[in-house]
Amino acid sequence: MLGCLQHRFQEARILGVPFGTHAARLAAIGIPSLVFGPGSIQQAHTPDEWIEISQLEAAESIWQRIVQLDLETERSPA
Fold first, then answer.
1. In the chain, how many H helices and how many E strands?
2. Number of neighbours of residue 9 by Cβ within 10 angstroms
3. For 29-40, what is each residue's pLDDT tens digit?
4. What is the Cα–Cα distance from 22 to 3, expressed in whole angstroms?
5. Which residues, including other chains, have CB under 8 Å from residue 60's CB and lie 6 or more apart?
6. Residue 10: band (very low, low, confident or very high) from pLDDT cuts 50, 70, 90
7. Percentage helix, strand, coil, to 5, in the chain?
8. What is the C-alpha to C-alpha distance for residues 60 and 66, in angstroms, rounded to an integer?
9. pLDDT value of position 9
10. Gap between the Cα atoms of 56 and 5, Å rounded
11. How far apart are CA 66 and CA 18, in angstroms?
């Protein structure tokens, strides 16, 4: 996944974050994991959680590009 992202987005990198997700548990059993989404972690999972529509649209666009790049990679001869 990182290779796919780095191919499309040069600034893609692995880094730690100061909050918990299930990604570490999944990675520990061999399931590649990606933590990504719109909004701010400071607002996440709070009683008044919200995101701007533009953030949601930007995330959707990125996911579409990731899926498209992955499909192109699968179709490319090795």
1. 3, 0
2. 13
3. 999 887 878 888
4. 21
5. none
6. low
7. 45, 0, 55
8. 10
9. 63
10. 19
11. 25
List the one residue out of 77, 58, 74 whose CA is nearest residue 9. 58
Helix (H, G, I), strand (E, B) or coil at 2: helix
Rg (CA), the chain: 15
Contact 64, 70 (CB under 8 A): no
What is the C-alpha separation between 59 and 78, in angstroms, rounded?
30
Q: What is the mean pLDDT of the chain?
A: 80
Contact yes or no for 74/56 (Cβ under 8 A): no
Query: Phi/psi at 41 (nearest 5 deg)?
Result: -65, -25
- Angstrom distance (rounded) from CA 7 to CA 38: 21
- Closest to 9 (Cα-Cα) out of 50, 47, 61: 61
State the pTM of this model.
0.60
